Amino acid sequence: MPGQDLTPEEFRRVGHQVVDWIAQYRETIEQRPVRVEVKPGSVRAQLPDRLPERGEPFDALLDDVDGVLLPGLVHWQHPSFFGYFPANASLASALGDLLSTGLGVQGMLWSTSPAATELEQHLADLLVPALGLPAAFGTAAGGGGMITEASSSANLVALLAALHHASDGDWQARGVDRREVVYVSAHTHSSMEKAARIAGIGSTAVRVVDSDPDTAAMLPDALEAAVAEDLAAGRRPVMVCATVGTTSTGAVDPVRAAGELCARHGIWLHVDAAWAGVATVCPEFRHLIDGLELADSYCTDAHKWLLTAFDCTLLWTRRPGVLTSALAVVPEYLRNAASESGAVVDYRDWQIPLGRRFRALKLWAVLRWYGLEGLRAHIRGHVSLASEFASWVAASDDFELAAPPLLGLVCLRARGGDDATRTIMERVNATGRAVLTHTVVDGRYLLRVAIGGLNTERRHVEALWRELQAVRASHGGPEPSGAASST
Ligand code: PLP
């Protein structure tokens, strides 16, 4: 019937087909190349040049997913995907997401779906002790957490709160005055500079503080000097963004020292732990967030390494009042008794858009399916594989470590120099047997091996190491030393 959705009966039938399709895709993913060369425009060339006038059976869509889209995708869930950071999309989270979409609720206000807000608040609170975060981030202590779509958004929201905080509360009316300064290191994620542009203070408000040449961590003395200089010049230090696990090399900024400085000057400290933060589910990694009790806001992505399909970033603040004062605008059509009672949280006031998905459900699916024990095993497995991999690199004649490894991230380069390193990455990626990505730090080209895939096992890491050595050997380097084959 034109204009009609699937009947529940059709949904049942097609839904089973879709679930079977996904199960089959995941079951056989390892048989696929992780990525293949795709010529720009080649996918579009296979797509119909007009939209159907009459509705089509769902099978037609599945055929195109199979035949047209799959060959044009990079298989991020492949166990030999080592690029960027992991983007775990566990099947448990996929089911949680399906439930959430099936419910189709909007959680913009508490009153538009009370359970959506309350589950989200509850999970954010339960994760405070589970991740070893300061109690001040929990609701009971006057703080609170939420789920947003990305750390980039969390960084923006934190900056808006910081601007409000630095203006003694009149930023929402007055806007910025171009004296604002945000402190980052050269390794801070680019989303912070983008946030400064969106917030209207511009890229010139972002001051890059020197970092340690060996560890790439922000230098506390340099931060202190930069703040003092700006204050003396009449500028307005608004926020320090410290990163725990930088994108390029996994560097860890000194959160405690930054926090002490921020506390002295009333500056907002935001800690971006997008990738590394979830590792503190294991107590042995909590030293990475030492000093976090001094932070005003903190974010980490469940959608990177904590088994939850994109999108699922957790953001906590110990000052929710500042955040909501900065962002709340209440038009008549959203007024309701619950909001006015002050007894509920309306998450629309914690984010940029009004509408919001019920993301907490997929996170809950993950937390319940795996349990904290399962999450710890997931993280620990990768960390131990990464430290083994790093030991092979360190012992090799062909490669060297290019930065201190952190958790599941190992950065390396070929001993032959930047061109050799770049060529090796291109050749490994061209095999389709693994995917790696690169970065440039202090002018040197390096490879990043991010171990953290949903199903990445030792054999995949061994195979990558063999591949790297073989490619190195066939392009002018010494013979493979065979470290992985002896393991
Ligand atoms: N912050 C850091 C430190 C990151 O490493 C990344 C991405 O890798 C981001 C922010 C952006 O993450 P998202 O995709 O969640 O916006």
Main sheet record: 7 strands, mixed
Derived from helix and strand composition plus strand pairing, the structural class reads alpha/beta
CATH superfamily of the largest domain: Type I PLP-dependent aspartate aminotransferase-like (Major domain)
Number of helices: 15
* Average pLDDT rating: 95
CATH C-level label of the largest domain? Alpha Beta
Topology:
Blueprint: H1 8-28, H2 58-69, H3 91-103, H4 114-130, E1 144-148, H5 151-166, H6 171-174, E2 180-185, H7 190-199, E3 206-209, H8 220-232, E4 236-243, H9 255-265, E5 268-272, E6 297-301, H10 302-305, E7 313-317, H11 320-327, H12 337-341, H13 360-394, E8 399-401, E9 409-414, H14 418-431, E10 437-441, E11 444-450, H15 458-474
Parallel strand pairs: 2-3, 2-4, 4-5, 5-6
Antiparallel strand pairs: 1-7, 6-7, 8-9, 9-11, 10-11
Helix pairs in contact: 3-13, 4-13, 5-7, 5-11, 13-15, 14-15
Bound molecules: pyridoxal-5'-phosphate.
